[in-house]
Amino acid sequence: MPKKKTSRLDLASQKLTHWIGTTQSILVHTTFFLGIFILIIFGVAMDKVLLILTTAVSLEAIYLSIFIQMTVNRTTQSLAGVEKDIDDIQEDVEDLGEDVEDIQEDVKGISEDYVEDDQENDDVASALKDIEKRLANFQEDIAVLKKKGLF
Asked: Which residues of 56-79 are buried (b: 16+ CB within 10 A; e: fewer)?
């Protein structure tokens, strides 16, 4: 599966999503929220500070949920690609299994042919030995006949 070109916005969201889960993120958020409360020291009314804090937290929650959904979507796409690869691998394994079965059948056939050839060779060898014995007997008979002068 060819990789799609990742846009700048996608890259930025991936980096930000990754960064959100770090210790640095905790420190930055803690500093930011403390900074909002420090506004009280500079004379900003408590209700305004709480309004700013509530607005900031709400906006952050909205963006975090968007980033999380983007990550879920990327993961889903990635898993779909992996699932397709697994299906392809399973098909390849099944094909290999069939090939192995074919090879086993071929080997069995060759073994049977070899055994048959051996039996044929044994039969031929036995027939040749029988012919040799008969020829030897014929030669002995001819020799006996020659001695008797009949041949």
From this structure: eeeeeeeeeeebeebeeeeeeeee
Does some domain include residue 2? no
Total of domains in the chain = 1
- Residue type at 47? D
DSSP 77-139: HHHHHHHHHHHHHHHHHHHHHHHHHHHHHHHHHHHHHHHHHHHHHHHHHHHHHHHHHHHHHHH
Q: Which structural domain range is residue 93 located in?
A: 8-148
pLDDT tens readout for residues 103-146: 766 666 665 665 555 566 666 667 777 777 777 667 777 767 76
Q: For the packed helices 8-20 and 23-38, what is the interaxial angle rounded to 10 degrees? A: 80
3 DSSP assignment: P
